[in-house]
Write a structure and sequence with these properties.
The complex is a heterodimer. By secondary structure, chain A is mainly alpha-helical. Chain A has one domain. Chain A is built from eleven helices and no strands. The longest helix of chain A is centred in the first third of the chain and has 31 residues. Chain A is globular. The radius of gyration of chain B is 18 Å and the shape is globular. Helix content of chain B is 35%, strand content 26%. Chain B is of the alpha/beta class. In chain B, helix 3 packs across helix 4 and helix 5 packs parallel to helix 6. Chain B is built from nine helices and ten strands. The chains are: A mainly alpha, B alpha/beta. At the A-B interface, helix 1 and helix 4 of A face helix 2 and helix 3 of B.
Chain lengths: 264, 240
């Protein structure tokens, strides 16, 4: 096995072990979308009527509509959680251990990013299984088709988190940033309501939602769950991933970015 | 060939100059104590030596490998113990070592054999299955030193490794690392502000305000156990 793959395997195993030892984190990650699904969606079911829009070919209940958005929500929260633990690792010093390994820094950061995404995909599947148990059935093959969409969307959100981790100097600042990022990103997207619904209230908000990369992550997942590829969403997600990964690598470059600023 | 060669190294945080033209070398088998009061620039120097930062001026070479030109080859020759603890407390001693071994390209089998070897070297073989969280401060530090030796580096860097330890643990760790230099031919750079960790045969570098003020063998710099007084006098303005 090459040193690259050994490092990847070690980082994946470490994240998996940490995940298994942090059961509370796993439960918390599941409770959040389940509350939305079982409480919020049930309450809004009557209030929010939905017309037939792709990829749906028939009328659907609101619970069915928000499942892809809640899956993306799991990826989003996990990406921010990973970014938080990166800031923590940097403050506590364990990030140094990783960055002094004799491998290119971009590879080490990519391994870390991928490990976080794989953990969040496990959580997304756990959520889909619980939703299934509550009667929310999706096309059986959709559960398989959605896997690459989850990977790409997770990488994009993880890259945004990595970028934030590279710019935030202290752990204390992170909570504020998370509120500024997570809530606008989630609510200004198609996770909870379709674009045409948003347009009825405000065309400006509709445009913001349409530009929001998280909307494209949600739509990529939504279409994949119904065995369809949304190329436009894939393009936006891939572009956002490339831009934020580039910015994050710049931020972690030892000759530039945050690493050369005094943090003590 | 020196295990570590630093030439004309300078670094600044914005307008504040943290290191000014620092030059020194550490030979294989040499225990070099980098003495400096708080704020002298020791941690900045370590960040540069481990490539967490990159200096715009100066050169660092590890076993002849330029850290800027060939970072991976240079880092592969280097073991590091950071001032802050960098163990994964929820993992066992063996898993902490295996993780580090994999980051340095060791196969599972090689890693297990090396782990056994380094734990024996540090008198910790019986603790391989314990969780890092269950170790006391002295053993955690010893584990970090064992981990830094996993890939058989030729240079060992330790940034104030005895911070927070009691006198007995400090003495044990200092003795262990001196033995690594003496018996295994390892080059050691040991940053500290505690003069009692330095032996008469050690090389001493006194760093103050980002500059090397003095270098030489401890017994030559200050004969008859006068190193503490000499160090205080040399860096007096820092304490004021």
């Amino acid at each position: 096995m090459s040193p690259y793959l050994r490092a990847l395997s070690a980082i994946l195993q470490r994240e998996a072990l940490r995940f298994l030892t942090q059961r509370e984190r796993f439960l918390a990650a599941l409770v959040r979308p389940l509350v939305w699904l079982l409480v919020f969606a049930a309450g809004f079911r009557a209030a929010l009527g939905l017309s037939i829009t792709p990829p749906y070919q028939t009328y659907i209940t609101y619970e069915v509509y928000i499942v892809p958005g809640l899956v993306a929500m799991i990826l989003l929260f996990n990406a921010m959680q990973s970014a938080l633990s990166l800031v923590y690792d940097r403050e506590m010093g364990s990030m140094r251990l990783l960055l002094t390994a004799p491998l290119p820094r971009w590879w080490l950061l990519f391994c870390k990013l991928l490990a976080g995404v794989l953990v969040s995909i496990l959580q997304a599947y756990a959520f889909l299984a619980i939703a299934y148990a509550f009667g929310i059935r999706l096309p059986p093959m959709g559960y398989l088709w959605v896997l690459p969409a989850l990977l790409v969307a997770g990488l994009m959100l993880g890259a945004v988190g990595l970028f934030l981790a590279s710019t935030i100097r202290q752990l204390e600042n992170f909570a504020g940033v998370m509120n500024f990022v997570i809530f606008p990103v989630f609510f200004l997207s198609t996770a909870l309501y379709p674009l045409w619904r948003m347009a009825e209230s405000s065309t400006l908000l509709r445009d913001i939602c349409a530009w929001n990369p998280f909307t494209h992550a949600v739509e990529l997942i939504r279409f994949a769950l119904y065995l369809r590829l949304n190329l436009e969403a894939l393009g936006w997600v891939a572009l956002t991933f490339a831009v934020f990964l580039g910015l994050a690598l710049w931020g972690f470059d030892p000759a530039r970015g945050i690493m050369t600023r005094k943090t003590r | 060939m020196p295990a570590l060669e630093v030439a004309d190294l300078s670094f600044r945080y914005g307008r504040k100059e943290a290191l000014k033209g620092v030059s020194f070398a550490v030979q294989p088998g040499e225990f070099c104590a980098l003495l400096g009061p708080n704020g002298a620039g020791k941690s900045t120097l370590f960040a540069l030596l481990t490539r967490l930062f990159v200096a715009r001026q100066g050169r660092i070479a590890v076993m002849g490998q330029d850290l800027q030109q060939a970072p991976r080859a240079a880092l592969a020759q280097m073991g590091v113990v950071f001032q802050q603890m960098t163990l994964d407390l929820d993992l066992s001693v063996a898993r902490n070592l295996a993780y580090f071994g994999a980051l340095h390209g060791l196969s599972r089998r090689e890693s297990a054999a090396r782990a056994q070897e380094v734990l024996e070297r540090l008198d910790m073989a019986e603790r391989a299955g314990e969780k890092a969280r269950d170790l006391n401060g002295g053993h955690r530090r010893r584990l970090e030193i064992a981990r830094a030796l996993m890939h058989r580096p030729r240079l060992l860097l330790l940034d104030e490794p005895t911070v927070g330890l009691d006198a007995r643990a400090r003495a044990a760790i200092t003795a262990h690392v001196h033995a690594l230099a003496r018996e295994d031919g390892l080059a050691v750079l040991w940053a500290t502000h505690l003069v009692d960790e330095v032996s008469p045969d050690d090389t001493v570098l006194i760093l103050h305000h980002g500059e090397i003020l003095q270098t030489g063998q401890a017994r030559d710099i200050a004969p008859e156990n006068g190193l503490a007084a000499h160090f205080m006098a040399l860096t007096e303005d820092a304490a004021a």
